[in-house]
Amino acid sequence: MTSYTTSGSTKGGREGRAVLDNGGLALAMAFPKELGGDGAGHNPEQLFALGYSACYGQAIVALGRKHGLDGGAAKITCAVTLTKDDISFALSVELKVHIPGADLEKVKALVEEAHQICPYSRATRNNVPVTLTVV
Fold first, then answer.
1. Which of 5, 35, 94, 97 has the maximum number of C-beta atoms within 10 A of its C-beta?
2. What element of type H or E holds 8?
3. Which superkingdom does the taxonomy of this entry point to (predicted)?
4. 36 and 51 co-located in one domain
5. Residue segments in the chain with a per-residue pLDDT below the cut of 70
6. Pair (80, 116) in one structural domain
7. For residues 120 and 47, what is the distance between their CA atoms, to the nearest angstrom?
């Protein structure tokens, strides 16, 4: 079995600073304007969107040939929504996949299969609503 572990630390929560423990990335964090912040930094939802789109994109690349498609040409857009209700906050996700010039039915089949193997998709399954959209 092969594995990979990475770690990061934050201080100050959503109004603080986030740093990868290897020093490779450091970001100022801030509440989005839509939630009453100044928006002068990044937020966890943005980082989740980037991570999920890259991870899901790799699943598309890995399975593309099986479906007769060039997975490397796919553009994956991950929209993460943070919603507040009376009790707490909740996340939802939409993954939009576009492969220029590809047959939409083939792309739909690829998108569904990639959703089964992507680690982010597996981690969110039955916990975070994820919508798959072919564009």
1. 97
2. strand 8-11
3. Bacteria
4. no
5. none
6. yes
7. 13
Strand partners, 115: none
Q: What is the pTM of this model?
A: 0.94
Does residue 18 sit in the same domain as residue 35?
yes
Helix pair 44-64, 104-117: axis angle to 10 deg: 120
Collect all residues with Cβ–Cβ distance below 8 Å to 59 and sequence separation of at least 6.
Answer: 114, 115, 117, 118, 121
Q: What is the CATH number of the domain that holds 103?
A: 3.30.300.20
Cα 81-83-87 angle, rounded to 5 deg:
155
Q: What is the layout of strands, in order, in the sheet containing 75-84?
A: 75-84, 89-98, 130-134
Nearest 5°: CA angle at 128, between 54 and 134? Answer: 50
| Cβ contact 75:98 at 8 Å | yes
> Which range of residues forms the domain containing residue 63?
44-134
Same domain, 55 and 15: no
**Tokens standing for residue 131:** 């919508």
